[in-house]
Amino acid sequence: MDSSSIRDNIRTDIVEVRLMGRNKVLSSKRKALQDVVDLGRCVTESEVLIISNKLKSKSSVQVQDLILLKLAFVQTANNIVSFLKVKGALHGLVRELSSVKSNYQLVAAECCCNLALGDGRSCLQVAKAAGPYLIALMSGSNYNLIHISVWALGNLVGSDEKVWRLLHSQGFLSRLLELISEIDIKSDIPARDEILQNSWTALVHMLHMGSSLLTEEETKSIAKIVTNLKCTWDNGLQVVQYLLSCMDAAEEELLKNQVHIKCLKFLTETELNEENIASVTPAVRTVANLAAEPSGACSLEIVANFNLLQNITQKIFMSPYKHLVNEVGWLVGNLVNHNSPEVQSALEEFSLDFQIFESQVVFFNS
């Protein structure tokens, strides 16, 4: 098969993969859309105001009222603005978070989760009023409430730097790390996968928004916890490790726990498909980042595991995921151009192989 045919086949595969991705995203949104369909109509702004005033005046609020409010917040941002303009409505909603009725608590938490879809100013209001209550619910025994509370806090913490600072001061990071550690060792709790996934998403937002706000000790603490978990395959974990690999304070802990070798083994054992690509991409980037550390110790260990590297690169070159070719190019470049004499000496044994890698990167990018 000539080079033109190979490129055409890869492009065809890419189109199919993108279509699968769009269908997957659409399917993930169908539950929320189905709620609206089941309701039979959109919630009007006047209905939002009626429920808001009920919450404000401590009138008898029904679960159905809160369900309408929850759906109203995802239908249009104007409903969020209208709700927050009613003085006392948000505090009334927070009151339901501390209700003795778990069904009221759950829907109130879902309302907070959807309120967090608003702009930074709206999220700051929600975080001030509901943040401490949502964080407290993370320590409860109702796992559905924990799941929704973490989801809401994750939405909030990634919305704005002021919100990040506020939730950080309220103790969200420390409680989140405790929860991840607890969930990691428990395999039989309800909603475990949902809680863990939402926890990873929240931690990703914490790191992304707060990369320059976290102290060195906090960054080291995060790295120590996530690199000692039993779970090694989760998409969120791979993204967290990648973000940590971009932070100097985490480097020592990542190298000490052999994250680069774990990633290489993960990449070797993992099939390249639509389900796994969200884990594979950050794993490759993590190895590439760590390969650039100045001492050369990491690069030497990567070269010592050349058979793993070779397996990974060939698998990526023949896959439809063209963006991974660039990531491999970055990894190979960091190895070949490393300033350490020891690394350069180790590379001599595989010099021809690395020349082939570099030519393949150019070919598959053309």
TrEMBL record:
SUPFAM superfamilies: ARM repeat
Alphabetized InterPro entries for the sequence: ARM-like (IPR011989), ARM-type_fold (IPR016024)
PANTHER family: TRANSMEMBRANE AND COILED-COIL DOMAIN-CONTAINING PROTEIN 6, TRANSMEMBRANE AND COILED-COIL DOMAIN-CONTAINING PROTEIN 6 TMCO6
Protein name (Swiss-Prot/TrEMBL): IBB domain-containing protein
